[in-house]
Amino acid sequence: MESFFDKVYTIVKMIPYGKVTTYGRIAELCGSPRSSRAVGYALHVNPYPGIVPCHRVVNKEGRLAPAFAFGGMEIQKALLESEGVLVDLHEDGLYYVNMEKHRW
Q: Among the options 11, 15, 20, 54, which is catalytic?
């Protein structure tokens, strides 16, 4: 039987190039809609960097992860921008994706 983390990795691999989705949406697709934090943890310990594109997962407002596990927020920003995703710096000093434009 597939573990919750394996379900997360399978679904995240489906996010198309140039698109993003939220931790909550991944949790819903895994059948556990209240498990967005567990999704975040699964991605934080992702054993398949480069295969599971965890940089394509953001919070519900489109905010990038301040503690992105694979090099920090600047790395997540660069990975998204390399795929054509527009990332804006907001007044709070954090980066956000336009979810209307880039949501999967």
A: 54
**pLDDT confidence band for 65 (50 / 70 / 90):** confident
Q: What is the pLDDT of residues 15-54, one digit of tens each?
A: 999 999 999 999 999 999 999 999 999 999 999 988 999 9
Q: What is the DSSP letter of 60?
A: T
pLDDT at position 68: 76
Distance between CA atoms of residues 20 and 99, nearest Å? 8
Q: What's the number of CA atoms in the CB half-sphere (13 Å) around residue 47?
A: 3
- Buried (b) or exposed (e) across 9-43, using 16+ Cβ within 10 A? bebbeebeeebbbbbbbbbbbbeeeebbebbbbbb
Q: Is 54 a catalytic residue?
A: yes
pTM score, whole prediction: 0.94
